[in-house]
Amino acid sequence: MSEEPEPLKPLRAPLPENSRGYGWDDRYEEIVNIFPHEPLEKYLRNGFHPVTLGDRFYDGRYTVRHKLGFGGNATVWLARDSRENQWVALKIKQAKAFSVDIEQDPEIKAMKLLEHKYTTHGSTKSRCFSRLLNYFQHVGPNGTHTCLVTELLGPSIEQMIRVFDAMIPWDDPDYQEVETFRPDTILRSSRQLLEAVETLRLWGIVHGGMESHASFVFRSKPSY
């Protein structure tokens, strides 16, 4: 007779009796482990655009090869740019965020402003934002979607912390060697984040969401 598998235990402590409660997904700190995708019910009119690996965009220039992630308003894909022969990140927004004049899209306006400030101020510091390479509109079954093409970045700080965390055998009481970021790496990363905030302030821009999941590492160009 085979043993039944142990049920997944909640990672958070039960709520106090006077609490109003929460949903089943709120019982887990790492919600991405049990809900690793965007809400599928948003694949409807004015919602997300259905994407399949191998799909082509912008007259065949960008070919989707892998999924990078998602947010509340868009999905992000690894794509190959056949014209420039390079890897890029393709962000496809929900159709409800569509602007008749794509130049008025808030995110595009912000990224173009950042690029303008960076080039005109002759900054000697490293770039603190991703480069907007292209943007266009794509018509799909759920509506017209604004698409942004940016340079491909490395993992987020949150993802890197997760990798180190997963390497630690928490169930081994004798484990001593803890793999984590080196102190100089932490200090260098912290300094770069502060410099980025200061640069934006000098340009008259306020960043409202400096979080680990939204802070990415710039990567070297791959050799393939």
Describe the model:
The chain has 224 residues and is an alpha+beta fold. The chain folds into two domains: 41-152, 2-Layer Sandwich (Phosphorylase Kinase, domain 1), CATH 3.30.200; 154-224, no CATH class. 20% of the residues lie in helices and 20% in strands. It has three helices and six strands, in the order ββββαββαα. The protein has a six-stranded antiparallel beta sheet with strand order 1-2-3-4-6-5, with helices on one face. The longest helix is centred in the last third of the chain and has 20 residues, at 183-202. It catalyses: L-threonyl-[protein] + ATP = O-phospho-L-threonyl-[protein] + ADP + H(+); L-seryl-[protein] + ATP = O-phospho-L-seryl-[protein] + ADP + H(+). Keywords: ATP-binding, Kinase, Nucleotide-binding, Serine/threonine-protein kinase, Transferase.
Keywords:
224 residues; alpha+beta; Phosphorylase Kinase, domain 1; 20% helix; transferase; EC 2.7.11.1; protein serine/threonine kinase activity; Kinase-like_dom_sf; serine/threonine-protein kinase
